[in-house]
Write a structure and sequence with these properties.
By secondary structure, this protein is of the alpha/beta class. It has helices spanning 5-8, 21-25, 46-60, 74-86, 104-111, 121-124, 130-139, 153-159, 183-195, 216-226, 250-263, 272-284, 304-310, 316-324; strands at residues 12-18, 29-36, 64-69, 89-95, 115-119, 143-145, 166-167, 170-171, 174-179, 204-209, 234-238, 293-298. The chain starts with a helix and ends with a helix. The structure holds pyridoxal-5'-phosphate (PLP). Pyridoxal-5'-phosphate binds at residues 44-45, 74-75, 149, 151, 178-185, 271, 299-301.
Length: 328
């Protein structure tokens, strides 16, 4: 039986205008697009990137999926949740020396029935190489291989079902989001390039890279080429080159807590908060013309807050704030 997205957990989308003196001073409008699901692990960009993988698994009668991720990965948690809901198998190759079941993400994944296989960092680096992927496919021939982050063409096409272009106040000039494996930005570019009639077009899509990955632009370019997307203005901006992925410097944590308190929408310092911090810097530096309307996709990721507390990257008070505030 083919399950529709609605059968799994109905997505609920909402727009929130962020009103603050530093935005009005720059004469920039900022809108957050939030997508929450009955199953919180699938909120944000998660269900959107997985939906067509699940359809394919059902159509082709695979037993399940096999995928990759770090030990605190939102993607792994989402795959575990979606597999359980659809009664399919889930196998994950986890970038870690041993499977620590005190880690809240891995404990959750295992609790959903996901099979967790530890692989060391060096082997994990091969996750995009054809020979390595060939071996994995041979080892799990009846499972669909879902790339890290769900960033395949199917993942990007799922994101392209979203409309980030039309805010409640009218057409956005800029669409922005956090970017890591590239599928989310690729999907937003696909959607914006379809949606924009020349006279009233979105001017650009901006991916705020939370990873220091020189290959990210190329990965997105490949996804767009494979999906035959016509040219559209987009760029990748590095958020904080001096901080590695998920390092969560104090200023990002403080920003997240302040934003969450002030606006009643939780953001976390690995993805959405890190990206918004950079976006605010760009706004403050006058990088957007006065009168610009920016639409920002809140990609979720709040399951990761428990892992931040587990690693002592945030204190108990910060944990309570970020884990008890809604995601949109
Ligand atoms: C919460 C969150 N935001 C943003 C991203 C970045 O999306 P992508 O990997 O498609 O670039 C991810 C990773 O999937 C994520 O977990």
């Amino acid at each position: 039986m083919l399950l529709s997205p609605m059968d799994i957990a109905a997505p609920s989308a909402s727009w929130h205008q962020i009103v603050e003196p530093r935005l009005s001073e720059a004469r920039v409008e900022l809108w957050l697009y939030c997508q929450t699901m009955a199953e919180p692990m699938l909120s944000g960009n998660k269900w959107m990137k997985l939906q067509y993988h699940i359809k394919l698994i059902q159509q082709q009668q695979y037993r399940g999926l096999v995928t990759f991720g770090g030990p605190f990965s939102n993607h792994l948690a989402a795959c575990a949740a979606v597999a359980k809901l659809n009664k399919i198998n889930a196998i994950a190759y986890v970038r870690t020396d041993n499977i620590d079941l005190n880690n809240p993400t891995l404990a959750y994944c295992q609790g959903q029935g996901m099979q967790l296989i530890a692989i060391d960092r060096q082997t994990y680096r091969q996750r995009q190489q054809q020979t390595f992927l060939g071996l994995i496919t041979k080892r799990h021939p009846d499972h669909l291989l879902v790339p890290e982050g769900g960033s395949s063409v199917l993942g990007a096409q799922g994101i392209a079902d979203l409309n980030l272009t039309d805010t409640p106040a009218g057409r956005a000039d800029v669409i922005a989001t956090a970017s890591a494996s590239g599928g989310t930005v690729a999907g937003l570019i696909m959607a914006a390039s379809r949606a924009s009639p020349a006279a009233n077009a979105v001017k650009e899509v901006i991916g705020l890279a939370v990873v220091n990955d020189d290959a990210l632009t190329e990965k997105i370019t490949v996804l767009l080429k494979t999906a035959d997307v016509k040219s559209f203005p987009w760029r990748i901006i590095t958020t904080a080159a001096e901080h590695r992925y998920a390092k969560c410097p104090q200023q990002h944590i403080d920003f997240c807590c302040q934003f969450t308190k002030q606006h009643g929408i939780a953001v976390e310092p690995v993805y959405t908060g890190r990206a918004l911090y950079k976006l605010y810097q760009m706004i403050g530096a006058g990088e957007f013309a006065p009168g610009s309307r920016i639409s920002f996709f809140h990609t979720g990721g709040l399951q990761g807050v428990a892992g931040l507390r587990y690693r002592d990257l945030i204190n108990p008070q910060q944990y309570r704030l970020l884990s008890s505030t809604k995601a949109g």
